[in-house]
Amino acid sequence: MLESICVFGASTISPPALDLCWEHGVAVNYLSEFGYLQARMTGVADTSVTLRRTQFRAADEPAKCAAIARHLVAGKIQNSRNSLLRAARENDSPDEQKRLTEVTDGLARQIQHLSQLSTSDHQLDAIRGAEGLASNQYFAVFSLMLKQQRDLFTFSARSRRPPRDRINCLLSFLYALVRHDCIAALTAAGLDPFVGFLHVDRPNRPSLALDLMEEFRPWLADRLAITMINRRQIGPEHFREREGGAVEFTEAGRKLVITAYQQRKQENLNHSLLDCNLRVSQLPFVQARVLARHLRGDILDYVPLVPK
Fold first, then answer.
1. % of the chain at pLDDT higher than 70
2. What are the beta bridge partners of residue 239?
3. Of 38, 66, 149, 273, which has the fewest Cβ atoms less than 10 A away?
């Protein structure tokens, strides 16, 4: 299976290894020591231009966009719901269990609402609205998944550009790492990561990568953030506040999160569609190929990844 390699900071990769990556279509991503993408090397793509032309035509059809977006959003909401159900089971506070259960019930209603939406030209905004509402409900109880350090990692809502608290800083950084992997996966599958179906196209915006990563956010990025806080693997000393209230990582904090993310990617997880165990690092590539197969007409619908 084609994958990608990440090279951090001053690390190097030998010329013979680069040759193998080139021959087998493995992308090499060069990131700074802080995890920012600086450059990307890929071999000559061996996929047909037919797939990308099919993608572009589909992106120009609102009804087709709505059909794909509905499954992407449903997958994200279901994965968010699963995380909250797990948190409710493990929570000893009846009041917090009730709050978590109320949100999981609300997310279930959002999924049911999505299933009832048609894929007409006018439903794409409704799908985006359902995703936004579900995200607001999910993040309203996000802090209840924390078992440790709640007083040190306070959280009320998502804030970006810039993040206003430590959890938002951590989430935004992890989302950036997931986005890089989705860009590599889509490119390896022969798709254009900048032409999406759920997210609107904008200059320099990898819309399709943002589409694909939606289903990965709750169980990969969010769960890793919660685990690191609960296990006290990360603390206030790994953050600093800038003038104006923006929160950013220290150098040690960035390296810590990158290491934890790379370790998480080496773990195995059951893929519900294929019914087999795969490394987490392989899953974006699998989902990119599922999307490619749908666009080619090999399968009726795009099937999002919902880990068991």
1. 89
2. 249
3. 38
Tokens representing 131? 């995703």
Other beta carbons within 10 angstroms of residue 2's beta carbon come to 18
Q: Looking at residue 25, what is its pLDDT?
A: 66
How many residues does this entry show for the chain? 308
Q: In which residue are the tokens 């968010």 written? A: 80
How far out from the chain centre does Cα 224 lie? 12
Q: Which residues lie across from 276 on neighbouring strands?
A: 271
CA atoms within 13 A on the CB side of 282: 13
214-268 pLDDT, tens digit each: 999 999 999 999 999 999 999 999 999 888 788 899 989 999 999 999 999 999 9
Paired tokens of 266: 């080496």
Looking up tokens 């990769």 gives 13
Q: Which residue has the higher pLDDT, 115 or 68?
A: 68
Q: What digits encode the pLDDT tens for the residues 255-307?
A: 999 999 999 999 998 887 777 889 999 999 999 999 999 999 999 999 999 99
Return the residue matching tokens 């989302």: 175
Task: Give me 41's structure tokens.
Answer: 């090397």
Q: What is the 3-state secondary structure (H, E, C) of the chain?
A: CCCEEEEECCCCCCHHHHHHHHHHCCEEEEECCCCCEEEEECCCCCCCHHHHHHHHHHHCCHHHHHHHHHHHHHHHHHHHHHHHHHHHHHCCCHHHHHHHHHHHHHHHHHHHHHHHCCCCCCCHHHHHHHHHHHHHHHHHCHHHHCCCCCCCCCCCCCCCCCCCCHHHHHHHHHHHHHHHHHHHHHHHCCCCCCCCCCCCCCCCCCHHHHHHHCCCHHHHHHHHHHHHHHCCCCCHHHEEECCCCCEEECHHHHHHHHHHHHHHHCCEEEECCCCEEEEHHHHHHHHHHHHHHHHHCCCCCCCCCCCC
Count how many Cα atoms sit within 13 Å of the Cα of residue 251 in the half-sphere of its side chain: 3
Q: pTM of the entire structure? A: 0.86
